[in-house]
Structure formats: C-alpha cells, structure tokens
Amino acid sequence: MTDPTRRLRAVNALRSAPLLAVLALLPWSSIGAQQTAGPSADPAPADLTFTRDVAPILQQNCQVCHQPGAIGPMSLMTYEDVRRYARRISRLVEAGDMPPYQYDSDVGIQQLKEDWRMSDDEIQTIVDWVALGSPEGDPADMPAPIEWPDPAEFRLADRFGEPDVVVASAPYDVPEVGQDRWWRPTTPVGVNETRCIKAIETKPSVVGRAVAHHANSSLEVAGERAGRLSEYALGKVGEIVPEGACRRLPANADVVWDIHYWPNGVEVDDDQVEVGIWLHPEDYEGTYDQSLTLYFLQGGRGYDIPPHGTLMTQGFHSFDSPVRIDSWQPHGHTRLVAMSIEILRKNGRREMVSMVSNWSALWHHSHIYEDDVAPLLEVGDQLILTGWYDNTANNRYNPDPDQWVGIGDRTADEMSHAWIAVTHLDEEGMEKIKADRAARLISEQPDRDDR
Description:
Elements: H1 4-7, H2 12-15, H3 19-23, H4 50-61, H5 79-84, H6 86-95, E1 112-113, H7 120-131, H8 157-160, E2 165-168, E3 172-174, E4 181-183, E5 186-188, E6 195-204, E7 212-221, E8 224-230, E9 239-240, E10 245-249, E11 254-261, E12 268-271, E13 273-279, E14 288-296, E15 304-305, E16 310-318, E17 323-331, E18 336-344, E19 350-356, E20 367-369, E21 376-377, E22 382-390, E23 405-406, E24 417-424, H9 427-443
Parallel strand pairs: 10-14
Antiparallel strand pairs: 1-20, 2-13, 3-12, 4-11, 5-11, 6-9, 6-10, 6-13, 7-8, 7-11, 14-24, 15-23, 16-22, 17-20, 17-21, 17-24, 18-19, 18-22
Helix pairs in contact: 4-7, 6-7
C-alpha cells in the first residue's frame, strides 16, 4: 500500500474524467515544448534498470493515472508498456509536465503539503535510464503491485478516516450533449451545534466525474449566508485546515450548491455530488478563524481578449488584521496560462510567494503551504495577484484562437480569480507565530560544540 500523500494523487485519474476528451486532442509529442529543462551534464550511471530503479518511481508518481481504465492515455504498469513510451516519458518528466502539478520550482515558497512534483533525483533517474536504452533488469527486482484505492471513496479518508458528515446534492440529469448547466439546490447539513472543520473534500459521483466541471458550496443559516464551505474544480484533492485554526460549520446550517455541469458525451441520470466534512472534537474551538474566499483580479469583473491576442490583469487585496495565507489556488479556463501571488510590504518591498507559469485548466491544485513558511501579512501589506492569458495558437489548450473571449461562467468563457484560504490573526497571534518560527530555526542549528 502506498503512503497517503501519494494515494491522494490521481484517483484524480477517475475524478477528472472530463480530461479524456481534451487529452485525446493534445499533441503528446509536443507537450513540454513550452517549458524545457536542460539535461544533466553528468554521464548517466551504467547500471540503472527498470525493475530496480524506475518501476518504484512510476508506482509512486504515475501509475495511479496510467493504468487500464484510468485517465492516462497509456498504461505504465509493465516494462513492455513503459519501454514503448520511454522517450516521451523522459521528455514529459524533464519538462515538468508530468506528474501534472503546475507550480514553479525556482520561484517563491517551495515547502508545500500534498506536493505532487517528482524530486530532481527521480527525474534524473528516468532521464538517465532512457539515455541508457531503457534496460529492463532482473524481474526479481520488480516491486510488488500497489493496491489502488476505490475511486468511489473519499481520498482524504486515508488520513482522517471516514467523514463525520456527508452532504449530497439533490439529483440532476445531465444530457449527453448540450450547453453548460448550473444546478443550485440546497441541502441540510444535519449538525445542530457549531463545530470546527478539520478537512473538507468534494466528491462527484464516479460516472459524474465526466461532466462535473466544478462544484462550489456555501453555508446558510435560516436563509442568511454564513460563509463559504468549499470549492471543487477538476483535479482538486480537498482542503485541510491548519491545526489551531477553525473554519466554522454553524449549527443547523444548509449547504447551498453551485454545481457547473459540462455535457461531454456522457449521459448521466440522477447525478449527485457529495461533500465530506471531517470535524474536530466538540471541545475544540480553534484560536483563530479561517476562511476560504474567492479573490478577484481586477479583470475578474470584466474584460475581453481579442482573437489572437493576449492579456495581463492584476488584483490587489489588503486586510484589516494580520493574516496567514494557508493556501492559494489559481482559477481560469483554457486561455489562462500563468498566475502569480506576491506580497507588497508596507515598506515598499515586494516578495514573490508563488508562481505557476505553465497553468492548465485540466488540473486545479490548492497549493497548501507548510506551517513554518505560510506567508504572514501585517496590516498595511497587500497581496498582488497577476494573471496572464493567451488567446493565440501558441496556447496548446486554446480551442479556438479566432474567437473573442470575455469573462463568464461557461467553459468557453474566461475567469480571473484565486481561491485563497486565510487565517485571521491578531497582533498577539502574529507575534506568537513569528516567535515559534524563530525558535524552531534556532533549535535546528547545530550545537556550537558540533561545528
């Protein structure tokens, strides 16, 4: 059984079944052309083999998508499978296109939770093995097969057990062919006391994953809005609230759904989307509240991209109390190609936090920062969100560069925002986090006698 972090990956394979139609149209031999990495100058080791060195890497990083019946366009379960596509695999992993986790490795914060990226050593092992002619090795070295998870299960159950609460949307019939559809039912949560949420995962049905473009959920109490519950888009795993923070589930709340269905050649009757909620114990209160909010870029309020044109747009956001940024998730459609998040400090210093320069609408990732590096903003600091759009033929995901593209909810339209999870602190909380981080840095230094 592989570890929980790896297991979270591409049951995405089945979760993101709408990708099949798009992936089938992509020129696989050219993927990676926009982002290339230079080959190692060192000679390849002479004794690399598939069974001993490469197969374990594929098990941990690739096979969950690349197995019969999953989203990958080819199976990578056996030596014969992999040998056939060896050169293509080498190009894709060296370019950073596979595994599909769009996050720049040389800009900003690199310590992330649920990070899908291969290590440099893993990438180099595959590249070197292919350069050696892809030798098989001793079949006795082949690792035992992995028992892959049931795609109908909640993926975070590996870590937290079964959800404490599961809320399902009312059924909806999705036609085989048609325009984008939106389904906005309301469902009671069934919890009669206010609780703090530990984690959340939105799960379309197995067959519905072919047509569920996104599924957002908000909370209402007695008809009054009570905050955002969660957000789901293609490829997303879920949301994990940091220890000490509380995303509140109010007593007697209802879930108000905003489900975007995209007819994609599969007729789905009585489809339902579920959201699983893991709760802290009843006596857990959390020191500070956390919220998940859609932060617009200025273009998110309205813009047009001309045929064969490009666009850059920005958004600026500040806070009336100190905050910690827990996660950042860019959002757009097929013309968005890059997005960044920066901090403009009140003293004028500008800091890059994160950058995605090869963004793809096929995979939406909530980039969750490790606790000790999650960005801290004082009152007076500003977030700068920047998005870049490409409506030309150079954009490999662009379905039609001859069209004008404007802001809108349809798959053919564009969007310009980021989902950001924020823990709202006070001055005392900010100073405590800084002191704790400084103490850990000191404790990690070697003793003077050991130097």
